[in-house]
Amino acid sequence: MVLSRRGSGSITLPSGQTMTIHTRTHEEEDLPHATKKTMADHLRKYDSLFTLTPQRMRMVVEAFKDTLELGLQKPQQPMIPTYVFGWPTGTEIGDFLAVDLGGTNLRVCLVNLQGEGKFEITQAKYRLTEEQKQDDGQKLFDFCAECLKTFVDTNLADDNGELSLRPGETLPLGFTFSYPCSQERIDHGVLIRWTKGFGAPNTEGRDVAEMFRQSLAKYKLPIALTALINDTTGTLIASHYVNPRTKIAVIFGTGCNAAYMEKVGDIEKIKSLGIDEDAEMAINCEWGAFDSFEHEHLPRTKYDIIVDETSNKPGEQAFEKLISGRYLGEILRLVICELIDEGVLFLGQETYKLEIPYVFETAFLSLMESDPTDELLMIIGIFTHFFAVETTLAERQFFRALAKLIGRRAARLSACGIAAIVSKMGYLDEGCSVGADGSLYNKYPGFADRVHEGLQDIFGDKGKNIVTYHAEDGSGVGSAIIAAMTKLRKDVGLYNHV
């Protein structure tokens, strides 16, 4: 990004395009625009709608904590047992494959675990199209297997295209599947529901591990799917592998989720499995579903309700729809459209481009918040290049302030989720680290600082004992570590039935 403090410059857009822009002052007088006072009056209204007080945050935390407890008791609730037992020891060594099916990309990894928190990774990413996300589920897994074959042929095969395996030997694979599944064992998982904009039919209610195995067999790959995990569980294990103070992992990206380690004796819904009650097992919280359907605890605005009711899963994933990167841009767009309908914004201008759902990317909010120029040239670029509308400085200042309100609310609600686990597990006094991944946490300006601010608003000074940190690449590496842990566990005959 190259920008002068005022006048002109160029910006790099999320698409990678470089665009030259100039401030335009004389045109502002040619079209009717809202006054600075009008925009300030509207901003006060939205400030009250999107601001969370510490008291309201503590109420959300208490309700969240109750939901976590209930989920450990009832099979039909989230809080999914993962059958990942305990923390990595550092003795896990060798080559392991990982496939990570995220909300945007398919990632294939070869992870060489070297022990003592060290590893090397070779990886490739494959873009998922919207068509693939809505096409038949088996075709989606065929695509995963095809990419895996390409990766294996490129990185593991010799000059003759052969793999150096003993007869009957297979390569262990950890499959990170970032969607709610019910599991009765670690290499099995029935998809409960698609999230993050996926809607591939013939998949919900089916064993996705078995579907992937069918695709692996179709491509004649000598690979054993050893562990099916959620990306958040992978991040938990990978983060602890590198930083043993880590007790919680969170994902803030296209979706949102958390994982932590629970005593088996406190997981009421798996007591019949005969597992030692003192053993520890990672729990996949699936907290994006918090307050779904009932909508009793989260501070939803009318814009959040529109997002929910027009989504492909109305009523579901209530928490996710307030904080995930998929929805923040849409929330801001709905506010802008309301002001257009009220005759406040863009009078005399064509605004049809802004009327397309989800056209306003959350990446635009990041750019708007980080615009360093006096004239807010970045925001000029966004509105002229993508939406063909002219803006005044007062309007641009309003858009940036609105982006901050929506982004800050997302971070503070995220802090509520972390605080609920911290409070439930008694981590506050001793403190702990929280491994965090996802595009919102990693790329949205100030998101992590706002999470920490939120934790201190909830807990007071003791909130400083809870520290989030960037745990990039957790799902791929974590998946491989869990495959290694599971192979070691099964090799010694420990809990083979799960």
Automatic annotation (TrEMBL):
EC number(s) stated in the UniProt entry for this protein: 2.7.1.-
Keywords tagged on the record: ATP-binding, Glycolysis, Kinase, Nucleotide-binding, Transferase
Source organism, top-level taxon: Eukaryota
Gene3D superfamilies recorded: 3.30.420.40, 3.40.367.20
Domain Hexokinase N-terminal: 43-241
GO molecular function: ATP binding; D-glucose binding; fructokinase activity; glucokinase activity; mannokinase activity
Family matches, as SUPFAM superfamilies: Actin-like ATPase domain
Composition bias, Polar residues: 7-20
Ranges for region Disordered: 1-20
Family under the similarity heading: Belongs to the hexokinase family.
Name this polypeptide is given: Phosphotransferase
